[in-house]
Specification:
- By secondary structure, this protein is mostly helical.
- It has 3 helices and no strands.
- 0% of the residues are buried.
């Protein structure tokens, strides 16, 4: 056990530049993988707190979830399976000064 540690440290100090690159690459790979995993887990538990999760549907066109104001009314009239519709938007408020 001690011999393996001694050999690893000797090789680490012998080629410092390549050891630095390898350790930096390993740390970067682990951190990026962790960030991707956290993002995926966050996306998978989106709206899971709602009791009727199986009845929620989000309508998107391409990458955008933007629809006209009358589209939700049209959907409700066209498909009788739809109980309720809702639209939401996020506005950025800017200071007038």
């Amino acid at each position: 056990m001690y011999l393996h540690l001694k050999l690893a440290l000797r090789k680490l100090f012998k080629s410092r530049f390549f050891s630095f690159i390898n350790i930096l690459g390993l740390a970067l790979g682990i951190s990026v993988s962790t960030i991707i995993l956290i993002f995926i887990l966050h996306e998978l538990k989106y709206d899971r707190s709602n009791k009727k999760i199986e009845k929620i549907c989000r309508v998107e066109v391409g990458d955008w979830a933007f629809m006209s104001p009358t589209f939700s009314t049209h959907l409700a009239e066209t498909f009788p399976e739809i109980d309720k519709t809702a639209r939401f938007s996020i506005y950025e408020l800017h200071d007038a000064m």
